[in-house]
Write a structure and sequence with these properties.
Elements: H1 2-16, E1 22-32, E2 35-48, E3 51-55, E4 57-61, H2 77-85, E5 88-93, E6 100-105, E7 134-140, E8 146-151, E9 163-173, E10 176-185, E11 230-233, E12 236-239, E13 242-245, E14 248-251, E15 276-288, E16 292-304, E17 314-325, E18 328-339, H3 350-353, E19 355-358, E20 361-364, E21 372-385, E22 389-400, E23 404-413, H4 415-418, E24 424-436, E25 450-461, E26 464-476, E27 481-494
């Protein structure tokens, strides 16, 4: 308690020197690594000139009041990096649409160009259970040159597995602009969770909390082993087998006699790298400028992969129209895709789809792409209705050798509406579904590509709000999806 009070005083002192500081305190129940924890979080948001710093200093407590080492673990290099990075919600320079805007930390909605490769990406979908420290930039230089980039997680750079993308655009002839985008995921398996840092995904690790053990091949011992089979001893990796013969434990590191279990090499993320790269080009020309903006554009992209069997496909979206009119922002485009190609590959669901455990295997998003020929339309719109509700929706319908549909919608109530209901501080909901195949399941039937949820906040005092956030996602197959429910209940204090 003394530590919490001291931290609060220090944060208040720091924020008092800032221009317009905001300090929040959140207390509630969250789901982390499949367990329920009480989470206490101090959230100072401090603007300093063109900079902005938002921290997230947290403690996790179990039912007995014991403090988890999550976020305070310095036992390994990876754990120390995570401990430091978890303290940062974001650090920014400038604001969106200013000549220079850069942000490190939680990324909420990143789109490069017209969005054929990177569209609506977020690295905060699993916050606060999983925190990623991304890096976003948008810089406008002289002569109309514009540079944009995004990195999903700086911590992944230490393990060789981040994904990143960059785009450059400039005037070509008159008002006609040209842009080029390059995106690469160095190792899609890096997205698999590994909380003990032994390079084996938690879902395939019998000992997910023991960084020195990752395989269970005992012939007869109960799980988990008293002595794990695959362990690091004094810096060396050795096999250790536990056999129970006449009640005596025998540890055999040399001759493997009388073993009744096969040895299975563990799946290591760094040893099974699987990358993907995408390159794209686009053209845009403004038809209308002023209060109502209308732009004609076209874009194309190609997947680059390493072998003949998995050769990437290509696609284009043209013609396309992008409209900005008061509270409405919308775009509509015709699409044509050939081979193993999918649009908006890096989207808001990417961190969930990047790689998954299916049975005993790890499968990447890219490995699940089929070689098909598809044509159709895509539309996206964001609308503020009478300044009381904000709604964002997108829909894609492609047909050809198969049908490909995708539907996203989310909305939130704005302050004029919230103020009409006493104590109501927040209401929002979302539904996202990708790879919709109505032959396997109905349009709204759950699949592993479905996620939905809602947030409701109630004001319980001056500057105090109780927030209930529930979201659902699925694992398994489309024919047998397994639903997982995650509930976060927090008391947010702002002052």
């Amino acid at each position: 308690m003394r530590l919490l009070c001291t931290g609060a005083i220090l944060l208040w002192a720091l924020s008092a020197r800032a221009e317009v500081p905001r300090v929040g305190v959140a207390v509630g129940t969250v789901t982390v690594e499949g367990k329920q924890w009480q989470r206490i979080s101090f959230r100072p948001d401090i603007p300093i000139g063109p900079f902005g710093v938002a921290l997230d200093i947290e403690l996790f407590l179990d039912q007995k009041g014991n403090i988890s080492k999550k976020g305070w673990d310095f036992s390994t290099g990876q754990a120390a990096r995570e401990t430091i990075f978890r303290k940062i919600y974001y650090v920014r320079y400038g604001k969106p649409m200013e000549p220079i805007f850069m942000k490190v930390g939680a990324l909420d909605d990143v789109t490069l160009g017209y969005g054929l490769i990177v569209d609506g990406y977020t690295n905060a979908l699993e916050y606060p259970s999983v925190k990623r420290i991304g890096f976003q930039g948008d810089v406008r230089l002289g002569g109309g040159l514009r540079l944009q980039w995004v990195v999903n997680d700086l911590d992944d750079a230490f393990t060789g597995g981040p994904w990143f993308a960059a785009r450059a655009s400039a005037p070509l002839i008159g008002k006609l602009r040209i842009g080029g985008t390059f995106a690469v995921d160095l190792n899609q398996f890096a997205g698999l969770k590994d909380r003990d840092g032994d390079d084996v995904p938690d879902a395939m690790d019998p000992f997910p909390d023991d960084g020195t053990a990752w395989t269970n091949t005992d012939a007869d011992s109960d799980f988990p082993d008293e002595i794990p089979d695959y362990r690091v001893v004094k810096g060396d990796t050795v096999w250790v087998d536990t056999l129970d013969i006449n009640g005596d434990n025998i540890y055999d590191r040399g001759e493997y006699r009388n073993l009744r279990a096969e040895r299975a090499e563990p799946f290591k993320k760094s040893e099974n790298k699987d990358g993907i790269a995408i390159v794209g080009v686009d053209l845009g020309y403004p038809i209308l400028e002023g209060p109502v903006k209308l732009e004609l554009y076209g874009q194309a992209a190609k997947f680059l992969t390493g072998d003949e069997e998995r050769r990437g496909g290509w696609g284009f979206a043209a013609p396309g129209l992008r409209l900005v009119a008061g509270p409405l922002r919308a775009r509509l485009e015709y699409r044509n895709f050939q081979g193993r190609f999918r649009p908006e590959y890096f989207n808001d669901m990417y961190e969930l789809e990047r790689a998954r455990i299916v049975g005993d295997s790890a499968v990447t998003k890219e490995a699940g792409l089929d070689s098909v020929s598809l044509k159709g339309v895509f539309g996206k719109a964001v609308l503020r209705i009478m300044n009381i509700i904000s709604v964002r929706a997108s829909y894609q319908y492609l047909s050809g050798e198969e049908r490909n549909q995708r539907f996203y919608v989310d909305g939130r109530a704005l302050e004029p509406l919230l103020s009409q209901v006493p104590r109501l501080g927040e209401v929002s909901a979302y539904y996202h579904k990708d790879h919709i195949d109505t032959k396997e399941a109905g349009f709204f039937d759950p699949t592993p590509n479905t996620i939905y949820g809602y947030r409701i906040g109630f004001k319980v005092g001056d500057g105090v709000q109780l927030v209930w956030h529930t979201h659902y996602q699925y694992t398994g197959t489309s024919k047998d999806p397994k639903r997982h429910k995650y509930v976060t209940v927090e008391t947010e204090v702002k002052f």
